Amino acid sequence: MKKRIRVALAGATGLVGREIVRVLEESEVIDAVPVFLASKDSEGEEVPYKGLEATVMPLDGYDFKGVDVAIFAVPAAVAAKYVPVARDAGVMVLDASGRQDKDTQVGALGSDLKKARVVACPHPAALALASALSAIQAQAKIQRVVTTVMQPTSGAGKLAMDELYRQSVSLLGGAGAGAVDNEHFPMQVAFNILPQVGEFEKNGQTTAENRIARDFQSLMGAAVPVSVSCVYVPTFVGVSQSVNITLDKPLAADEVRNMLEASDTLVVIDDPESGEYSTPFGAAEMGAVYVSRVRADASTPNSLNLWIVADNLRAGVAENMVRMVEQVAVGTAA
After folding, report:
1. Domains and their CATH numbers in the chain
2. pLDDT 10s digits, 292-312
3. Which of 153, 185, 207, 304 is the most exposed place for a label (fewest CB within 10 A)?
């Protein structure tokens, strides 16, 4: 029998929020009774849920005491204002805004949530990377990780996706270079690659690169040295990574591939002879993390290369959030 749990979802009308709604509907563990919240601009909108239309309520002024879990799929500035309100109401808070403070724990399925009141959803790239490498870490200590993260425009929201679409149509229609408007990216993103995701910080890294590194280490539970480079690519959905790892002992690519295939959260598509490998398009709307191109790095001893792909909205946030809600519900029942 499904466990009933009351869930407030702030940001229900956004890209991530709507994906969370779909995963809540599909859950085989919980029967979520949701309250959909958003800004006043979205108040009164209808969100489909289990064959019905639920009316969106304003986030401002909402009393969180009537729910068990509050999910925030909102910008960091909005979360900074309302997460403390939900926390002070005694509600378990799951925050996908990217905001973190001293009271926040980075969490995923399997994390100990008993003492945490605010759990931050890790960056989708960090979650995908940790999901893959934790399967290897159980057999060999990872001494170093280098990853280049290819971020889709959906990572910056729906308006950013719309900008990619408009620019692509305009350029294909004959507009010259420099003739398109850049509102959500520092430069033209269509038919381009931008080596900046987030703001530049004092260490030369961007906010996204620092967050991915921090979240990855939190998930791994160990100070694994990691170097992150993050770029925007002209795609809509799906975060991809080209990863190089160095281990404390030699492992053949076949051994590593077998470890990855044994994981319940990973799908390995790696058949070079048949030209089979994962892509962002193939991972779209899927809840798994995909791994391909597992191979030895001949330039450095005990090193391997991997290709990791996941739907940043579904696998990277929504699935993780709902699995944690399920974990809270089961814990409540126990």
Report:
1. 3-121+317-333 (3.40.50.720), 126-312 (3.30.360.10)
2. 999 999 999 999 999 999 999
3. 207
